[in-house]
Amino acid sequence: MTTQHQAVWKILCHKLAMGVPVTYRARGQSMRPAIPDGATIGLVPWSNKGVDPCIGDVVLAWDGHRAVLHRVIGYCGSHVWIKGDRHDRIERFHTSQLLGKVDTVDGVRVDGRFGSAAAVIQVGLSVVHPLLKSIRKRWLSIGAAIPQRRRF
Predict the structure, then answer these.
(1) pLDDT of res. 115
(2) Which of 77, 64, 72, 8 lies closest to 46, judged by CA?
(3) Which of 4, 20, 122, 149 is 20–30 Å from 116 (CA)?
(4) If you ran DSSP here, which 8-state letter would residue 32 be given?
């Protein structure tokens, strides 16, 4: 992330922390196809006063060095687990590090709270896909170790 990009994120995060909704042009591929590179996203401030994050919400988290815009895949107590739709890596944040929630993508209001079966499938596949990849890899390595019967 460039210094200029970091400065912009710091300003956006500061505005969200003050309760001001912001609009930003998304960069990167981690949330495709839900949020394509270059999409205009609207972020509303996160209010963590007794409100649990909902699985499926796309949130903005700040770890002190960088901003992360990913989907909530789980939470427990005061911690939330998020990941990009196209990533295998899961990150954990404290709810106090959540600054905003995606409200609109290219002017269309979004609700990640499983309003549709498609949202359930998308989050489920994003969690299950890495597991299936590792099972396939292990299965192929076992298959390579078994000698093949030759047909005459």
Answers:
(1) 43
(2) 72
(3) 20
(4) T
Strand boundaries in the chain, DSSP class E: 22-25, 40-45, 58-62, 67-76, 79-83, 91-94, 98-105, 108-109
Q: Which comes out higher in pLDDT, residue 37 or 135?
A: 37
Fold of 3-145: Umud Fragment, subunit A (2.10.109)
Helical residues (DSSP H) of the chain, grouped into ranges:
3-17, 117-145
- pLDDT above 90 as % of the chain: 30
Contact between 61 and 98 under an 8 Å Cβ cutoff? The reply is yes
pLDDT at 82 over 80: yes
Count of residues in the chain: 152
Nearest to 104 by CA among 50, 48, 58: 58
